[in-house]
Amino acid sequence: MPTDSRTAPGGRAGAPTWVPSGVAGWLDERRRRLVWFLQLRLLPSQTFRLSVATALVVLWVVLALAVPSWAPASALSVVVVLGGYFLRLRQLAMLLFLVATALAYVVPRRNGDRPRGVDPEVATALATTINPTVLWVLAAVAGVVVLIARSRERLGVHGAQGESMLVELRDRLRAQSRVTSLPEPWHLEHAIRSAYGDGFAGDFVLARRSGEERLDVLLVDVSGKGTAAGTRALLLAGAYGGLVGALPSDRLLPAANDYLLEQRWTEGFATALHVTLDLRTGAFEAASAGHPPLLRHRGGPAGGGRWVVTEVEGGPALGLLPDVDFPSAQGVLEPGDALLLYTDGVVEAPGRDLAEGIDLLAGAAGELTAGPGLVGSARRLVDAVAAEDDDRSVVVLWRAPALRPADPAPVGPAAGRRGRADHVSPSSRTAAP
């Protein structure tokens, strides 16, 4: 499922907005415990599992002949589905052969056993026969179960273990994008949405704080979209997670490029944007690898509160050319300033120029800074501007405005006169820069 996270000073990254973080963690832990209990404790071996399935089939045969109304043929579909979930392919084939044998034994007896003196149509209405349509449905269910079991056999796992492994890997890699705490006045948010609502995306964010001085943020867009790019994104996120914060800022993108070239993927390229921030001074350095440009917001009177494009010369996309340089751009984030990083899925659309999409994004960001503020802005922007047919990511890094100290209260006879002269209406104070 698509996620977004927000990091506040001294706090944990936010959970999806529709589930409280404590409840989501509790439910996820209970789900994992239940899966492992079922697969490693309750059903410890394939032989035991196959024996249980066999007993269910035998029970169905007995009931189908003794009390037909209690044992419809469709009940065997439950056994087949459970077999596909808990059994390996070989044991599943044995179970399907057993089910076919049971049907071959029961169907002639059920369909040929009509109560004496009862019209055949009445007997059919009494449901003592097995409709051929049910048999075709059972065959279709068995075919789908075999296909799923074959795909799991390739992975070497069965049941929910394969899905649990991928989900746990994805969650652990996503945790690398969360900075548990940032000193005041710094804030970092990011939000990711995958194409078509898939659970895996080709975009990922890595963030790491090194000591008290340095923050690294890396936004990567892997070629492809959705689940098709998700596996490569998982691999790169794990590899690049070891580079972020461990290398000098000017060596990160070259090292990431070398690693991707070594993979020799047919679609092995990715765009990236790396920002290194000095948390003490606000000085930042941005380097790009074929990525859309930064947007920067200047909060002071000189900036006018607008978001402007900050071009980074950068280099080509990662994984295309060896031995390339990635020039960087420098700047300083003053109080009230912000940086906006995004992937092309946020600004690209059929029939629309890229520059137009960037202008739309800057306009939407400007409405947030002029209105509710930047808290929650990453989620709002990725939902408001992005299309549904591509992966979309937004990262917002900002420095909160400095609080102005209150003027000292006047003393003496001038207090009344100064109070009248310096009075400003609430609306004027709000509008003042």
UniProtKB/TrEMBL annotation:
Stretches that traverse the bilayer: 40-63, 92-108, 128-149
Keywords of this entry: Hydrolase, Membrane, Transmembrane, Transmembrane helix
GO MF entries: protein serine/threonine phosphatase activity
Domain PPM-type phosphatase: 187-399
UniProt-listed SUPFAM superfamilies: PP2C-like (SSF81606)
Pfam family, one: SpoIIE
Gene3D superfamilies in UniProt: PPM-type phosphatase domain (3.60.40.10)
EC number from the UniProt entry: 3.1.3.16
Ranges for region Disordered: 405-433
The keyword Transmembrane is annotated on this UniProt entry: yes
PANTHER family listed in its UniProt record: STAGE II SPORULATION PROTEIN E, STAGE II SPORULATION PROTEIN E-RELATED
Annotated protein name in UniProt: PP2C family protein-serine/threonine phosphatase
